[in-house]
Model the fold of this input.
Amino acid sequence: MHNRELNTEKSDSDGGAEAPLHEELRFRRLAALEMGGKEAVDRQHAASRLTVRERLSKLIDVKSFREIGTLAGSGEYDENNKLVKVTSAPYVAGLARINGRPVAIGGEDFTVRGGTTFGSARRKGGQGGFIEDLAHYYKIPLVNLIDGAGGTVTSAKRRGYVAFPGVHGFERSVQLLGEVPVVSAVLGTAAGGPAGRAILSHFSVMVRGTSQVFAAGPPVVKRSLGRDIEKEELGGAAVAVDKAGTIHNAADSEEDAFEQMARFLSYLPQNVWEMPPVTECDDPVDRCENELRTIVPERRTQPYSMHRLIELVVDKGSVFEIQPTYGKAVITSLARLDGRPVGIIANNPKFYSGAMDANSARKQIHFMELCDTFHIPLVFLVDVPGFMVGLKAEQEATLREGMRAVYVAGQLSVPTLTLVIRKCYGMAGMATCNKNDIDLKLSWPTGEWGSLPVEGGVAAAFRREIANAPDPKAREKELEEELNAYSSPFRTAEAFAVEEIIDPSETRPILCEFVELAEGRLRVNLGPKGKAGVSP
Done:
């Protein structure tokens, strides 16, 4: 809030009669910069949170912010109808640049009424409004800095009635998912509409310890369920990121969150009508890593570092992992190959031996849709023994979520390449291929595949024979050895049922060549209409 008398005296040097208007403009701008006042700003800092204007200054390019709606708010006037005080609107928005690229950006000002909805004829943002329209009509990324609870019950008293849900709906938010990159940072406690918009994003991040997100907060939980619960326990990063996957990534600080947002945007085009940006690369395309020849252990059940494998293949320092703490059985990363953005989907043998569970299926689906929307080719690095099995897996609908992954993989329009590192079994293996496209499948010599692994298959197919044998264990081993002779990847290559067996050390040159070829194909097929977008 800003409160002081205006200087209404004329000044020849300031343009005579126009001077009071200039003074009022300056007065209102100063009021906006003061936000909710010193006490409110101090409380924000005491909670280890930046103000919305401080956040903007740390995320965007220096001096690139062109604010829109600076003067929005509410004024108080004296008996002569002269302005004496201004309370800014609890939302700051405008145009800016991140790494030189224009974005539409906005965020709640928690120092003004806790960032709750501002009841004007047209909203600046936070609940739809101008900032989303700006991203839509100019086809530029939308950046949301979320720190507010959205609507409040007190608005009904001001309005005189209770609004029906959807008056200020998510229509534009949903539309933008098929048009431009949408990134959101939860930087305080988000509930209601702002929380919903965090989920309607291609990438979202929150800060551990100072950010929470939920459908409704502890007071509503207490009234509805009679349970006392702290907001961190209800919607902190341990729940929203690690367990539920509601938010994609967690950050150690607000500055870390901004760095992740900027880095995510660096892989994506401005909109679905453009191609992803290609950067200069000083990492040789023909770099061959001998370490790849020994990275897969001789013992088939022994885990290894798929993260290390990825690092050895892609441009050095280019890996940006999405949802690293959720659905850990699969790794989803943006990276670059010879400077070109690529999506990497890799099974992680350190978790469930790489088997696909419900969470990893959901994670893979989101990432496939993201890459398909923004013309980013996909490389599958496969080591999947199948769907996760057991009672817990069935209760979590692993089969349903896994088959959704198979469906989405078969609908992809971006070029895909499947490289089998070790195992590729069953319906989970189908989720690493696009049978409706060229279906390019490569393998390392360590690759193996089939409807199910020989070991489990023998036990099921020869159950009676094994049980009736004088030595069941010995007979089971004999049958496994007999059938393993047919599981060599070279026999599959003889039948051209896998397109090529490659030397692991040659992986980077081959993938770089594929992604360069994919770029040409994508440019030819780049359509005039937006994609369907990414489902929440």
Notes: The chain has a mean pLDDT of 89.
